[in-house]
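Long-time lurker, first post. I've been practising inverse folding by hand and with some scripts of my own, and I keep getting stuck on stretches where the C-alpha cells seem ambiguous. Below is the full C-alpha cell string for one chain I'm working on. Before anyone asks, I'm not after the true native sequence, just a reasonable design that respects the backbone. If someone could post their per-position residues I'd love to compare against what I wrote down in my notebook.
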C-alpha cells in the first residue's frame, strides 16, 4: 500500500522572513518615552503578536498583566521587572505565565536593550492599585503602527506586511 498523498494547502497566507532589526529607523514605532517596538507578526486569527521591544537607558514599560503566555529572547542589553529579583541578560530566554503582572525597566547603566517577544492575547495595563488603565491587543497594535507609519512617511499600509 502506498503512503497517503499530502497535497499542498490552498488559500494559505504568505510566510514572513525579514531582518528582525530594521535598517530604516522609521520601522520602530514609539511606544513611550525611550520605548519603541518593531512589529514582526500581527496574528489576527489566534490573537497575538511578535515584536522586538527596544528600551533605552532608564526607560520603563508600565505595569501590565498578561492574560495569556508570553515568551521572549534578549537580543541585546539587559532589563528586569520591578516585581522580580532576576535580570534578563543578553541571550536570556524569558517565559511570562498567564496572570503575570510586572513593570519592565532598563537600568541607568544600560544604553539600550532589544528583546524579541511573542505575546498572546493582550496586555492589560494597570496602576499601582491594580486598576485597569488601558489595554493593547493585536488590533490596537495594528492601528498604532498604521498611524505611525503614515506620519513617518512610510504610508499607513506599511503595517499590512506584518498582518496575518
Ligand atoms: Fe510583560
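-- Answer (accepted) --
I ran through it position by position. Result:
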Amino acid at each position: 500500500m502506498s503512503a497517503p498523498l499530502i497535497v499542498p494547502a490552498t488559500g494559505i497566507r504568505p510566510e514572513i522572513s525579514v531582518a528582525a532589526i530594521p535598517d530604516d529607523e522609521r520601522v520602530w514605532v514609539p511606544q513611550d518615552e525611550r520605548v519603541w517596538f518593531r512589529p514582526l507578526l500581527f496574528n489576527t486569527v489566534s490573537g497575538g503578536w511578535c515584536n522586538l521591544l527596544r528600551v533605552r537607558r532608564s526607560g520603563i514599560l508600565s505595569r501590565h498583566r498578561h492574560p495569556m503566555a508570553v515568551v521572549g529572547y534578549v537580543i541585546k542589553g539587559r532589563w528586569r521587572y520591578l516585581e522580580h529579583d532576576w535580570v534578563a541578560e543578553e541571550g536570556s530566554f524569558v517565559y511570562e505565565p498567564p496572570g503575570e503582572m510586572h513593570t519592565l525597566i532598563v537600568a541607568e547603566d544600560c544604553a539600550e536593550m532589544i528583546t524579541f517577544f511573542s505575546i498572546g492575547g493582550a496586555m492589560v495595563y494597570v496602576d499601582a492599585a491594580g486598576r485597569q488603565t488601558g489595554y493593547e491587543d493585536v488590533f490596537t497594535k495594528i492601528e498604532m503602527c498604521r498611524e505611525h507609519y503614515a506620519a513617518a512617511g512610510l504610508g499607513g499600509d506599511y503595517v499590512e506586511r506584518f498582518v496575518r
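A couple of notes from the structure itself: Residues 64, 66, 70, 96, 102 surround fe (ii) ion (CB under 6 Å). Residues 138-152 form the longest helix (15 residues). Happy to go over any region you disagree with.
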